[in-house]
Amino acid sequence: MCILCLFCTLWIIAQESLLRSGPMVGYSDFREALIWVQTTAPAKVKIGYFATGETEKFTHTVETSYKSDLIAKLTPNDVAYGKTYTYKLYINNIYIPRDYKLEFQTQPLWQYRTDPPNFKIVLGSCNFINEKKDDRPKPYGAKYQIFDAILKKDPDLMLWVGDNMYLRTPDFMTETGIRHRYQHTRATKELQALLGSVHHYATWDDHDYGPNDADRSYVNKKITEQTFNDYWGNLNTNAVGNGGITQHFAWNDIEFFMLDNRYHRAPNDDPSIDKAYLGKEQLNWLIDALTTSKATFKIVINGGQVLSDVAKFENYATYPTERTELLQRLHNAKIEGVLFISGDRHHTEISRLERKDAYPLIDITCSPLTAGTHTARDEGNTLQVKGTTYYNRNFGIIEVTGKRSNRELLLIIYDSEGNKIFDYQIKAQELKYNRK
After folding, report:
1. Which of 23, 90, 219, 428 fits a 20 to 30 Å CA distance from 39?
2. For the segment 368-388, what is each residue's pLDDT rounded down to a tens digit?
3. Dihedral angle sign, alpha carbons of residues 103, 109, 111, 114
4. Domains of the chain with CATH codes
5. Confidence (pTM)
6. Can you say whether residue 434 is alpha, beta or left, with left for phi > 0 and alpha for psi between -120 and 50 degrees?
7. Which residues are paired to 84 by β-bridges?
8. At what angle do helices 320-332 and 280-292 cross, to 10 degrees?
9. CA-to-CA distance for 277 and 64, rounded, in angstroms?
10. Cβ atoms within 10 A of the Cβ of 15, count?
11. How confident is the model at residue 5 (pLDDT cuts 50, 70, 90)?
């Protein structure tokens, strides 16, 4: 090999070593998408992208710095509606190849034109990535191959439903510790291919917000709020305007309302039955947003279970006044198409609340991805749907299909190897007040 060729090879290797994690695909909209990248040292990062038969176009270059935690957020915006784009990562103007697919998609403009497209949603929560020096003596995380099993199902977007990483004892009290945990988890080797071609949206629960069972008193909540926003590529957060990560986005004919069940939450041990869970402002926003929405399905995503009627652990039932208010206001406003998704519990189950003169409310709890599990046990949830409980690591896929007037969801729960455990169908017509 000539000296010049050797120099070029070493230079390319040097640039590739600057990639810590990513690229990760964040939100998708009509006119742009978001690509997230983190480097190991300051570098110039850009994305090249193209649809089939097109010439490669480039985003603006972003220079990563220690001030921004070496994160680059890039927005390819010379795009057309409803297309899939291949993209390439460049660091310091050197192409950094990946041995897996890198793609993003833009939203199709189907409204007033066609039926909404079919698509797939993946959901999961409770992702613990081991780091021996900081962990308990017995490792808590396992079976990281679940991320490859998810990718093989070819989903369009992934909902991270909380506890997406686990802050540890050395992490809670400093920004250095908090950012270390986010950085360590995001760099998981087995996760990278999934990040590269599936659009990711996230809310949090206690473990990626602060200590176990953390509430509004957590002194570093503004730091974790900023860190969360830095490490995820959500379309928006702080939708209510009073802090926290409440957010809203749409994908085809479904709208998603991702709640923050930590930032304004009263302590679990507060003896008042009127204690805040979401808080008045967030609850008002949710009812307003659901009332305004014309989506076929209105999916409300919360870190903890909403419908389970057993007042144990951190279920909404332990905050009875606010839970009752939410359910009553949903009924009073006659809001149709509402469905809940939750995480937290380290097992999967479906809860179904039958209501007088109203359609049933359903809460899909899906947990855990890689965190520890517990043995099968009857916790007393009287709303649990028979045959929908699973106590090992798992993920869910929701297939959205059908014509605009006859949409339906098919939930399929898979184990960490990608084997089907059970399925559950929900038709849009079943979530209406005048059901046929």
Report:
1. 219
2. 999 999 999 899 999 999 999
3. negative
4. 21-105 (2.60.40.10), 119-431 (3.60.21.70)
5. 0.96
6. beta
7. 105
8. 20
9. 37
10. 20
11. low
